[in-house]
Design goal:
The chain has a domain at 54-104 and 237-274: GSPII I/J protein-like (Pantoate--beta-alanine Ligase, Chain: A,domain 2). A hairpin with a 2-residue loop joins strand 1 (90-93) and strand 2. The relative contact order is 0.13. The protein has helices spanning 18-80, 116-121, 126-138, 176-181, 187-198, 206-211, 215-223, 225-231, and strands spanning 90-93, 96-103, 109-110, 161-162, 169-170, 232-233, 239-247, 253-262, 267-274. The protein is an alpha/beta fold. It is 44% helix and 17% strand.
Length: 275
C-alpha cells in the first residue's frame, strides 16, 4: 500500500429535483420580466395616446379661440351697422363656428354701488342690506354667486343683480321690478315706460316721461327728479359681449368675455376674460 496515495474526494449527495427547481425559478423570472416589459410598453402607449389627446385638445382650443376672436371682430362691424342683436351662429369655414351674446348690465342693479334705498325697493330685507354693506366695506363683491353666504339673502333677487357696469339703471330696458324700485317712479310712470317700450318707441329722457304722466304722477317724479337722473339712464354705458368659438364634433369651446363701452364707431374694450 502506498502511504502517499491521495484519498478519494468526498462526494456530495445530490438533492432530488434541484435542477427542476432551478429551471422553475428561471421560468418565473422570465415570465416576470415579460410582464414588466408588457406593462412598460402599455404605459408608454397610454402615455402616447394621452399626449396625442392633449395635443389635439390644445389645437381645438387654439382654433376655438381664433374663432371667438373672429366673432368679436364681426360683432364690432355689426355694432357699426346697428345689427349687434343679430347673434346667429356664424360658419367660418372648415367646420369652425362662432356666435356671441350681448348683456346690458344696466338692466340690473350693481351690488357694489347700489344705494340701500334701491336694495330695499327691490325687496331686500334689512338683514341682507346690512350684511351686504358690511361685505362691501371689506372688499368688492366679485360675483353674484357669493350672495347666498350673506344673511337674509332672497334667491328671487338673483335675476335683478349684477357686479358689472357703472351702477346706472337703463330705464329703456330694465324689468318692471327694478323700475319700480327707482326713486320717483310710481306705478303710472313704470307702466308708461313699459308701454312705450312695447310699441317699439321707448322713451329717451326723464323729461319725456314726465310730460306723459298725469299731474299727480308727474309731481311725484319731479320731487325725486335729481335722484332719478343720478341713477337712471336711457342707453347702456357698458355692454358685456361674450363670444364663443368651436369646431364641429368637438366638445371643447373657447369663450371670451369682453366688457365694452359702446361708442358710435366701435366697441371699446375695458376688460377681457378668456376660457
Amino acid at each position: 500500500m502506498n502511504p502517499y496515495r491521495p484519498l478519494p474526494s468526498p462526494t456530495v449527495p445530490s438533492r432530488p429535483g434541484l435542477g427542476a427547481e432551478r429551471g422553475g425559478f428561471a421560468l418565473i423570472t422570465v415570465l416576470w420580466l415579460i410582464t414588466a416589459l408588457a406593462t412598460l410598453v402599455g404605459l408608454s402607449i397610454a402615455g402616447i395616446r394621452v399626449g396625442n389627446q392633449v395635443s389635439t385638445n390644445r389645437i381645438v382650443l387654439i382654433r376655438g379661440r381664433w374663432a371667438a376672436e373672429a366673432c368679436f371682430a364681426i360683432a364690432q362691424t355689426r355694432w357699426v351697422q346697428h345689427r349687434l342683436a343679430d347673434t346667429a351662429t356664424i360658419d367660418l369655414g372648415r367646420g369652425v363656428r362662432c356666435h356671441w351674446t350681448v348683456q346690458d348690465p344696466s338692466t340690473r342693479l350693481n351690488l357694489n354701488t347700489a344705494d340701500p334705498e334701491l336694495l330695499r325697493g327691490l325687496g331686500a330685507t334689512e338683514t341682507f342690506v346690512q350684511a351686504l354693506l358690511a361685505r362691501r366695506r371689506a372688499a368688492p363683491i366679485e360675483s353674484v354667486s357669493q350672495l347666498p353666504g350673506l344673511a337674509g339673502f332672497d334667491t328671487t333677487m338673483v335675476d335683478f343683480l349684477t357686479v358689472d357696469g357703472p351702477g346706472s339703471v337703463n330705464l329703456a330696458t330694465a324689468p318692471h321690478r327694478l323700475l319700480a324700485a327707482l326713486p320717483g317712479l310710481g306705478p303710472e310712470a313704470v307702466d308708461r315706460l313699459l308701454y312705450a317700450r312695447g310699441i317699439g318707441h321707448p322713451m329717451t329722457s326723464v323729461d319725456q316721461l314726465a310730460a306723459a304722466l298725469s299731474p299727480g304722477a308727474r309731481a311725484a317724479l319731479l320731487a325725486r327728479y335729481a335722484d332719478l337722473v343720478r341713477v337712471g339712464t336711457f342707453a347702456p354705458s357698458q355692454l358685456v359681449l361674450v363670444t364663443q368659438g368651436w369646431i364641429d364634433g368637438e366638445s371643447a369651446r373657447a369663450e371670451i368675455e369682453s366688457v365694452v363701452v359702446p361708442l358710435p364707431d366701435r366697441l371699446a374694450v375695458i376688460r377681457r376674460r378668456m376660457w
